[in-house]
Design goal:
Number of helices: 12
Distance between the termini: 14 Å
Largest sheet: 8 strands, mixed
CATH architecture of the largest domain: Alpha-Beta Barrel
CATH superfamily of the largest domain: Metal-dependent hydrolases
Helix content: 25-40%
Number of domains: 2
CATH class of the largest domain: Alpha Beta
Structural class: alpha/beta
Shape: globular
Radius of gyration: 22 Å
Number of strands: 18
């Protein structure tokens, strides 16, 4: 599609930070925002004029925990290790479909979160080359973890001698973690993911950090030397503290964060991705299950008695209720919070992004603040706050036109997206131009 000059007029502008302003105009030229002004703006005859007719103009949103390969598979999702549910070519098609779905939803940037077979890299490069349409991608590595960690699929499939561990990369020792970081960043990954503790969603958190200090420092220093971010699956209290102090950029879940952890996150200027939708959906499923009729189908790979299953689920509920009490404390302290979750499972398919926002709204977070998480905070989490996340002169023109006002009604994002622009190029258009 054309990247000719765009002139948005008669817009209710949410700039990514402040309350919306009515009757605003925004000029886009050369892929960037050239002007933001009150009232009408004049343009050239060749400009594409977009009359928003009072609709909301806002920044493109950022999904900060994006599994590109999660989705329907021919095997029904059955695999000995996560990431082996289907062939790499099939999972590439899933990734392409997920990227298009995200774009349809007003998401113009994603931060990857562990994937097999270089899936994020392939998607990023295909989008850059115009092979498929999708958001800009910060490509993630496989999920680095210590050998024998709870999420290491080889714990139960070791006798299969699979070799390929899907989206898991298990190792031991600082040198091994340093080598893995060098290798995958060298291939083009922008984000290194580590797993530091058991828990979140289907299992209760353990107060551990599986990585030694040397292993953690090896990943962070090596990634940062090469300009890559580090993110951590980090539900544990001690994991949050040690990851923040080591310089981890993005802390996923933070189920058991405490005041000391909040202080460490603030001092490190790290980002937290609470991803509470998965916990909501999982608990709703688990607590409606008739445990007297059949074993609960989501576990940790090892047989459980009924009493063990019920104790595990009760502990998950306790973790979640604790997280709910800490969310307002994180907000009050000024922790950078963002959106993103484990989309792609049947309980929460890709595109169901507004449901996550609604979970936070139910916790008392105002829609305006949630949209700030989705835009301004998301750009900062990418390390690109100077280029993305707000509607300001000089920034990249990632813009979404939404019928209605999502800063008061989040549901507008579910049904009201009328236009999506990335880098000044219109990629989704359900509005008729006034002229041009």
């Amino acid at each position: 599609m054309s990247n000719a000059r765009l002139l948005f007029t008669n817009a209710r502008l949410f700039d990514g930070e402040n309350a919306p302003r009515a009757d605003m105009s925004v000029v886009v030229d050369g892929g960037r925002i050239a002007a933001v002004r009150e009232g009408a703006a004049s343009g050239a005859e060749s400009d594409r004029v977009v009359d928003c007719a009072g609709a909301t103009l806002m920044p493109g949103m950022v999904q900060c925990h994006f599994h590109t390969g999660f989705g329907p598979t021919p095997s029904g999702g059955i695999a000995p290790i996560l990431g082996l549910e289907a062939s790499a070519p099939f999972m590439g098609m899933i990734a392409s479909a997920n990227a298009r779905t995200a774009l349809d939803s007003g998401v113009t940037s994603i931060i990857g979160s562990s994937n097999p077979d270089g899936l994020d890299l392939a998607l990023k490069e295909a989008i850059v080359l115009g092979v498929v349409e999708g958001p800009r991608v910060l490509a993630c590595t496989r999920e680095f973890m210590t050998t024998g960690e709870q999420a290491d699929g080889d714990n139960r499939s070791w006798f299969m001698q699979l070799g390929n561990k899907g989206l898991v990369r298990a190792m031991t020792g600082a040198d091994a973690f340093r080598h893995a970081t060098r290798e995958e960043v060298g291939r083009g990954c922008d984000v290194v993911k580590i797993s530091v503790a058991r828990g979140h969603g289907s299992a209760p958190a353990w107060d551990v950090n599986y990585l030694t200090t040397d292993e953690l420092d090896a990943v962070v220093s090596t990634a940062h030397e090469r300009g890559a971010l580090v993110r951590a699956h980090c539900p544990s209290r001690i994991g949050v503290i040690e990851c923040a102090r080591a310089g981890v950029d993005i802390i996923d879940h933070a189920d058991r964060i405490d005041d000391e952890g909040i202080d460490a996150v603030l001092e490190a200027d790290a980002t937290v991705v609470p991803s509470m939708l998965w916990s909501e959906r999982f608990l709703a499923f688990a607590e409606s299950w008739d445990h007297g009729q059949a074993p609960f189908p989501i576990g940790e790979g090892f047989p459980e008695t009924l009493d063990q299953t019920l104790a595990r689920l009760a502990a998950v509920r306790e973790d979640y209720e604790y997280t709910r009490t800490m969310l307002p404390r994180m907000r009050e302290a000024g922790v950078r919070l963002v959106l993103g979750d484990d989309y792609g499972f049947p309980m929460m398919p890709h595109g169901d992004y507004v449901a996550e926002m609604e979970v936070y709204a139910q916790q008392g977070v105002p829609p305006l603040e949630i949209l700030r998480w989705a835009t301004k905070n998301g750009g900062e989490a990418m390390g690109q706050g100077d280029r993305l996340g707000t509607v300001e002169e000089g920034k990249l023109a990632d813009l979404v036109v939404v019928e209605g006002d999502p800063t008061t009604d989040l549901g507008a994002l579910r049904t009201g997206i009328r236009m999506v622009v990335k880098d000044g190029v219109v990629l989704r258009d359900h509005l008729a131009p006034a002229r041009g």
